[in-house]
Design goal:
Elements (H helix, E strand, L loop, with lengths): L1 H5 L22 H18 L5 H16 L2 H13 L5 H9 L5 H18 L5 H24 L7 H8 L2 H23 L1 H25 L4 H24 L1
Helix pairs in contact: 2-3, 2-7, 4-5, 4-6, 4-11, 6-11, 7-9, 7-10, 7-11, 9-10, 10-11
């Protein structure tokens, strides 16, 4: 169910019931784990070819291909809402609007340029590994926000929160987050510390922004967090690689 909802990977179809959704968020981070594995494998495969631009383009495309742009859609809607500078209610309405505006397009273009630019200077194996870990860890944090934080309005996120066994899901995600952090720091050293700092900084901003601007989190805001936190990791690792 988690892979059916949050990825484009073909999965067996069945009729969902509310009791089936109790634990699906426990497996949400494993979509990120798959993305991270694909990123690391592609990077290793492409190194002998000496085609850096192709390598960067495919690395940027892998998350979109796996998720179908699920989280980027939330990023676009959130950017439109934030740049409207309207009231909280109006911003919530913009989140529900299926159309995108100029600010969404400009924000995505900026994120893409920054991501590919800083990714181009990351070459150390440990830095690439830290980048790969970020997809798993960002989804651990996102899942925790869904079951622990206040939802701003009805939608798929609130449905996931209401149908989930919150205590069980929170414990499982917290354990996965802890194990992921230990593995990250053990395997990547300073690169892992920088990646973790970027993720936590993004998480704290997500908490503050969602409450201040929208009165709680939504599915779009969760997608915004996943997208921006992974971008923050790329920028942080890129800066460290340049120092």
């Amino acid at each position: 169910m988690a892979f059916s909802m949050y990825s484009k990977i073909p999965m067996p179809r069945f009729v969902w019931k509310s009791e089936d959704m109790k634990y699906h968020l426990c497996f949400f981070p494993w979509i990120g784990a798959l993305i991270g594995v694909l990123e690391a494998v592609w990077y290793q495969m492409s190194c002998p070819w000496q085609t850096p631009f192709l390598t960067l383009c495919v690395m940027a495309a892998i998350p979109l291909l796996v998720t179908g742009g699920f989280h980027v859609d939330g990023f676009l809607d959130t950017c439109d809402a934030l740049h409207s500078y309207q009231s909280m209610e109006k911003k919530r309405e913009i989140l529900k609007d299926p159309h995108i505006g100029a600010f969404a397009v400009l924000s995505l273009l900026t994120a893409l340029l920054l991501g590919m630019g800083f990714l181009s200077v990351i070459s150390e194996p440990k830095a690439i590994l830290a980048f790969a870990f970020s997809f798993f860890l960002s989804r651990c944090l996102s899942g925790l926000s869904v079951v622990l934080w206040k939802s701003a309005h009805d939608g798929m996120l609130q449905t996931s929160a209401l149908t989930a066994d919150k205590k069980c899901v929170a414990v499982v995600l917290a354990v996965q987050l802890l194990i992921g952090n230990v593995a990250l720091l053990s395997l990547t050293g300073w690169y892992g510390l920088v990646a973790l700092g970027c993720l936590l900084g993004s998480f704290l901003y997500y908490r503050w922004m969602s409450n201040k601007q929208f009165g709680g989190i939504t599915g779009d805001l969760a997608g915004y967090f996943v997208t921006t936190s992974e971008l923050a990791v790329v920028i942080g690792l890129g800066v460290l690689s340049l120092v």
